[in-house]
Design a protein that fits this description.
Elements: H1 3-31, H2 47-56, H3 63-75, H4 89-124, H5 129-143, H6 146-160, H7 179-183, H8 186-203, H9 205-218, H10 222-229, H11 234-246, H12 248-263, H13 266-271, H14 277-287, H15 290-318
Helix pairs in contact: 1-3, 1-15, 4-5, 4-8, 4-9, 4-12, 4-15, 6-8, 9-11, 9-12, 10-11, 12-15, 14-15
Length: 325
């Protein structure tokens, strides 16, 4: 199968997956107990007011008709109207998705920088004290609950020493002038450090262990011995030959990692009061603001699907054998 057919097949699979996610999200918020109009209607209001609001939002229609209307709106890019904010969902989550993406990308860069270095060095120094210590530390952070690691970092770096802020994206009253001023200011970067480190500490083990295991296989190949026989330095053999040939699954996992980091940032955002998509999901569920929760869930799921699709495409280009299977 040619690479173009491979890409098309993966694209069709991604579209089907997105359709399934959208359908599951719709069903999920229809079976959750609670009245979605509770966020808009005071209990003392007469029943006529409540029924009028249900008609305005289409909640009086049969579930099947609501589902078809929901899919039609999705095709047009309309995620609905927020019950709580009384404005389009796209406006509610528009800024928050960028906050989530920036946090996810920052944690990705830090996690992969640390993970690739540790993966290469622990594989090269196999059966050493360094390997045992580094592997143990990575497994501890990977095994510990994300919220526990975040609370430990908050206790040490924020409350104990006061080096870093404990919540939010900027200090109260900080002016938001331009886009660069908003995301590249010193105040924003200080607020970004703790959630980034917490997420990176948890996710760094994935590229590290993946590279380490792949390198252990590569180091037994004949071309490694050939490189040493040529008189190349150990550092060059490690980076130019062993690491380079072990990077394929790590590069593929990078796209998946970005999707998982973006989709799994809810705990980090809620813990650090980061105004992103994950925190908005929690607030929307608490408020029973189903359109916002549906839209945010769908966007997060879409990011994971798109990143997995990109990972498949990258793998197909890096290893042509994949595109012929």
């Amino acid at each position: 199968m040619g690479i173009s057919k491979y890409v098309l097949r993966r694209l069709i699979e991604a579209v089907i997956t997105l359709f399934i996610i959208a359908s599951l999200v719709f069903v999920l918020f229809r079976v959750v107990p609670g009245d979605p109009t509770a966020a808009m209607v005071d209990p003392t209001f007469p029943i006529e007011v409540k029924e009028q609001i249900r008609r305005e939002y289409g909640l009086d229609k049969p579930v099947g008709e609501q589902y078809l209307r929901y899919l039609a709106n999705l095709i047009r890019g309309n995620l609905g109207q927020s019950f709580f904010y009384a404005k389009p969902v796209t406006e509610v989550i528009g800024d928050k998705i960028w906050n989530t993406l920036i946090l996810s990308f920052a944690s990705f860069v830090v996690a992969y920088a640390i993970g690739l270095y540790l993966g290469a060095t622990t594989a090269w120094k196999r059966d050493s004290l360094y390997e045992r210590i580094m592997v143990t530390v990575q497994l501890v952070f990977r095994s510990a609950p994300l919220f526990w690691t975040g609370m430990m970092f908050l206790m040490v770096f924020s409350f104990r020493f006061g080096w870093l802020p404990h919540s939010g994206m900027r200090e109260p009253g900080y002016p938001e002038t331009t886009l660069l001023g908003k995301y590249l200011s010193a105040d924003f970067l200080r607020h970004l450090v703790l959630p980034t480190l917490t997420s990176a500490a948890y996710y760094a083990a994935m590229p590290s262990m993946l590279l380490r295991n792949t390198m252990l296989e590569v180091m037994g190949e004949d071309f490694i011995e050939m490189a040493r026989a040529k008189g190349l330095s150990e550092r060059r053999v490690m980076y130019a030959h062993a690491v380079r040939n072990a990077l394929l699954p790590v590069v593929t996992a990078a796209a998946v990692y970005i999707g998982l980091a973006a989709g799994g940032s809810t705990v980090i955002e809620y813990l650090f009061s980061w105004p992103g998509l994950g925190r908005e999901i929690v607030l929307a569920v608490q408020r029973r603001d189903y359109p916002v929760a549906q839209g945010a869930f769908l966007l997060m799921g879409s990011m994971v699907v798109v990143m997995n699709w990109l990972a498949d495409i990258i793998y197909g280009y890096l290893d042509p054998r994949v595109s012929t299977t």
